[in-house]
Amino acid sequence: MNRQNRRILMNKVVMTLSSLAALAGLAFLFWILGVLLYKGFGALHWDIFTVDMAPPGREPSGLRNALVGQLLLVVGASVIGVPVGVLAGTYLSEYGGRHGKLARLIRDISDIMMSAPSIVIGAFVYAIMVAPMGHFSGWAGIVALAIMMLPIVLRTTDDMLQLVPGSLREAAIALGAPKYKVIMQVVYRGAKVGMLTGILLSIARIAGETAPLLFTSFSNNFYSTDLNHPIASLTVTMFNYATSPFEDWIDLGWAAALILTLFVLGSNILGRYIIRTKKGK
Q1: Reported pTM
Q2: Which of 48, 205, 66, 49 minimizes the C-alpha distance to 138?
Q3: Residue 72 and residue 92: Cα distance in Å, rounded?
């Protein structure tokens, strides 16, 4: 067998193995989704959205307090993380110098934070907020989720702004526009699709986190919107219910997992749809 035939054979072997690995991964993915959809939709009912959690064996029982608490945590984290991340990314791209030492340092730190385990961030917020305050609180959970969201928004904003052609900035400056107007009305408009996609993906990421909330907002079996005290969340409730010995709580855990999965999946699909729509224009 000559060299060319050996290369062709090796290419076919590698392609076959790669295809089998991809099919195996897809099979496990659809298996997990299938089980989740089957058990989740089987446990889903209207009381989940209108009734709070009840003790085992008592009807009706739902997840209203956990859904409201999760919404408060995600919205609160977004209110903090999105503006700070966008402004930090704007500084790196427009003011800090794309290749400056400080800009490189901030980018490196951001990359490290993106890969840091979420439980480490939860422990950090526990040390700086929960321990000094003496109790868990919704604010601590919001800060933990905002810290997780910040590097994603920062890096996405920085990368998207750098993709905007410099000629657009120069043209706007030549017309007499000040720096902030160039950024607001020219640069942001050119990068808004990518920035929005990064924000959606960061929200999807923090919406499924459990570990940092166990250290910060903890949980609450009752309906509460007071962020100064422990507050319920869908992820922690799902963890507690899925590991409980009670059948009705396990069913609610499957329903919570389905709701959370649909939200995260929908956010990711929406972000990719926005990118594909922009590329097609």
Answers
A1: 0.88
A2: 66
A3: 30
